[in-house]
Amino acid sequence: MSKDVIIACDFKSGEETLAFLDRFAARERKPFVKIGMELFYAEGPEMVRKIRGLGHPIFLDLKLHDIPNTVKKAMAVLSRLDVDLCNLHAGGGRPMMEAALEGLTRPDGSRPKLIAVTMLTSTDQTVMERDLLIGRPLPEVVMHYAQTARDAGLDGVVCSPLEAGLVHERCGSGFLTVTPGIRFAENEKGDQKRVTTPADARALGSDYIVVGRPITAAADPAAAYERCIKEFLG
Ligand code: C5P
After folding, report:
1. Is 63 labeled as catalytic in the residue annotation?
2. What's the Rg (C-alpha) of the chain?
């Protein structure tokens, strides 16, 4: 997989999602899309098959976190959906991540790429110390989780573009950094705190940028997508 822009399809229904994707029907290379929990739980695997059938590469963002055996079996089911990228919480530990990889690997040896969420961006130092009883500095914890994911054989992590360089330094340049928190220079930040433009994310070494509202809520989403591609891929 080479560097790309992933559109976060955070729509509440399949109907809305398909209407949005229809804007790209004439494009030869269909955009890479992210399907999250809301749409998956609302519409089920059939929606994934439909979007795949339209020719879109898919990041299935379901963030699995359970005992190794359960995650392994769930990943085996997901591997049959022919998605390109899926994820889990590194907080489930190395045995869970290794089991996930095993489950994801199809009988012919192929598998979707697997990346880890390190610490959720909604978890700050206070929540970590008070609720999780983890006393180390947050950036150190994030890097340690990334390293554990790497050691377990995963392909990358979800992180901020601002952390992409550090992750590559620690885990190798081939270890994927998939980075949300992207805004065009003139955009409102919304609920995102630390944001970067597609061009900055490129300069910082992100492998994939995940872009939601700057594209989905734009007056002309197709034009916003093309702008993102141009800024990020050059
Ligand atoms: O609309 P926006 O560009 O903020 O959407 C970003 C997408 O990336 C959303 O689907 C959001 O859930 C996801 N995400 C994020 N920050 C993380 C992990 C995932 O914004 N740390």
Report:
1. yes
2. 17
Angle at 192 between CA 44 and CA 209, to 5 degrees: 65
Our answer on whether the CB atom of 158 is closer than 6 Å to any ligand 1 atom is yes
- 87-137 pLDDT, tens per residue? 999 999 999 999 999 999 999 999 999 999 999 988 999 999 999 999 999
- Residue with CA closest to ligand 1 atom 6: 212
Could you give the count of Cα atoms lying within 13 Å of 139 in the half-sphere of its Cβ?
7
CATH topology of domain 4-233: TIM Barrel (3.20.20)
With contact defined as beta carbons under 8 Å apart, do 103 and 144 qualify?
Answer: no
For ligand 1, is residue 224 a contact (CB within 6 Å)? no
Spatial contact of 224 and 215, defined as CB atoms under 8 Å apart: yes
pLDDT tens, position by position, 11-31 = 989 999 999 999 999 999 999
> How many residues can be counted in the chain?
234
* Predicted TM-score of the model (pTM): 0.96
